[in-house]
């Protein structure tokens, strides 16, 4: 349909040709002083306005027929957000008073209260392993209770937390979390892991679906909060690549300060450092955003920002109706101006040769 726009300059040439032809058949008078006072200044440019509006209407109609689309910010219909939160022992660090874990829990609960009602949430916790502590729900009380039940553990398996969150967000996507965490030849975990061929009624795995454009999944997202460096589990970058191939955005939050440490844990004090580089890379790969919070107020501000992001979303929306409306308005306006300016017989100068 856009090829039809080629006709616009052709119509302009045709219009100019018609004007020139009218001049050729006009009666020649010895002086223009007789005609100019009757024409007036406005009539010279007024006669070109309706044709110009009609040309614009034709162009707008052709563009609308091509079914254009644009990214428009609209209220989200229904979104699913999966929060993956670090519950490793490093969250005991007191550089964020009263401790990282308590500040994170308080901010997360405030975040849930501020979320729109049309946003469902699931919660995943990860330390040495990852687990789903609250399935996707719109019941805020259940989510807050799940956050209060966090139990700190050893290790930081950031990649495992991201994979479990992705499988929770896309339960029908066929994401094999066990194979991704423990290897493709094993199922189960820990000492109970067994080779795949020993599993009763083992089925042949289907190949993964073809990748989709990064960030194209608009029905949900993952929010990943961590305060330390990965010590076990799969590479977070590999997990981020799986999320990116499915179009899921991952918003990452690095929580803590460079001077954070765990005082008196089993007689030792451990310094903890946030792996900002990895979290930044995860957000970049998935077309998400990276945030850094060094105190409870920073974390609260970040959550408030994210709350507004999930209330509104950008969608590719067809805007053909907009161009069709513009075309109709221009046609009506052109007709109205023609009737207003040229409807009276005496508005034209009728001259004869007598």
Instruction: Report strand %.
Output: 15-25%
Give the termini separation: 52 Å
Work out the helix count.
12
Q: From the 3D coordinates, which CATH architecture of the largest domain would you assign?
A: 3-Layer(aba) Sandwich
Reported by name, the CATH topology of the largest domain is Rossmann fold
Shape: elongated
Order of helices and strands: HHHHEEHEEHHHEEEHEEEHEHEH
The strand count comes to 12
Residue share in helix: 40-55%
The biggest beta sheet, please?
6 strands, mixed
Question: Quick gist of this model?
Answer:
This protein has helices at 7-25, 36-39, 42-46, 49-65, 100-114, 140-148, 158-169, 177-182, 236-245, 276-285, 296-311, 320-342; strands at 69-75, 79-86, 119-126, 130-137, 186-187, 194-195, 220-226, 250-255, 261-265, 268-271, 290-293, 312-318. It is of the alpha/beta class and 354 residues long. α1 runs antiparallel to α4 (49-65), α7 (158-169) packs parallel to α9 (236-245) and α9 runs parallel beside α10.
Q: Could you please describe the fold and organization of this structure?
A:
The protein has 354 residues and is α/β, with parallel strands linked by helices. It folds into two domains: 2-25 and 33-68 and 323-347, no CATH class; 75-173 and 209-316, 3-Layer(aba) Sandwich (Rossmann fold). It has twelve helices and twelve strands. It has helices spanning 7-25, 36-39, 42-46, 49-65, 100-114, 140-148, 158-169, 177-182, 236-245, 276-285, 296-311, 320-342; strands at 69-75, 79-86, 119-126, 130-137, 186-187, 194-195, 220-226, 250-255, 261-265, 268-271, 290-293, 312-318. β5 (186-187) and β6 (194-195) form a beta hairpin. α4 (49-65) runs antiparallel to α12 (320-342) and α9 packs parallel to α10. The longest helix is centred in the last third of the chain and has 23 residues, at 320-342. Mean pLDDT is 79; it is low at 186-202 and 346-354.
């Amino acid at each position: 349909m856009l090829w039809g726009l080629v006709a616009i300059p052709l119509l302009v040439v045709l219009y100019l040709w018609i004007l020139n032809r009218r001049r050729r058949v006009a009666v020649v008078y010895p002086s223009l002083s007789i005609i100019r006072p009757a024409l007036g200044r406005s009539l010279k440019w007024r006669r070109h306005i309706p044709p110009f509006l009609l040309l614009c209407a034709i162009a707008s109609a052709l563009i609308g027929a091509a079914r254009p689309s644009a990214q428009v910010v609209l209220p989200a219909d229904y979104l699913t957000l999966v929060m993956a939160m670090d519950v490793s022992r490093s969250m005991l660090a007191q550089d964020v008073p009263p401790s990282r874990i308590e500040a994170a829990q308080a901010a997360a609960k405030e975040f849930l209260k501020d979320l729109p009602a049309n946003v469902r949430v699931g919660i995943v916790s990860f330390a040495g392993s990852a687990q789903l502590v609250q399935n996707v729900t719109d019941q805020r009380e259940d989510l807050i209770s799940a956050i209060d039940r966090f139990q700190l553990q050893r290790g930081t398996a950031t990649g495992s937390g991201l994979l479990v969150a992705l499988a929770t967000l896309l339960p029908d996507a066929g994401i094999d979390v066990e194979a991704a965490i423990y290897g493709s030849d094993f199922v189960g975990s820990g000492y109970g892991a067994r080779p795949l061929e020993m599993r009763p009624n083992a089925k042949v795995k289907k190949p993964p679906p073809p990748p989709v454009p990064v960030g194209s999944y608009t029905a949900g997202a993952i929010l990943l909060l961590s305060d330390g460096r990965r010590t076990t589990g799969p590479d977070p970058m590999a997990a981020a690549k799986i999320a990116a191939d499915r179009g899921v955005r991952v918003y990452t939050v690095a929580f803590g300060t460079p001077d954070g440490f765990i005082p008196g844990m089993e007689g030792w004090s451990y310094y903890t450092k946030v792996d900002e580089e990895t979290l930044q890379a995860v957000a970049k790969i998935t077309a998400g955003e990276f945030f850094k919070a060094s105190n409870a107020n920073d974390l609260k501000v970040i959550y408030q920002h994210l709350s507004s992001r999930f209330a509104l979303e950008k969608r590719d929306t067809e805007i053909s109706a907009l161009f069709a409306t513009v075309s109709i308005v221009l046609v009506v306006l052109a007709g109205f101006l023609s009737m207003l300016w040229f409807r009276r017989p005496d508005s034209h100068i009728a001259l004869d040769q007598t």
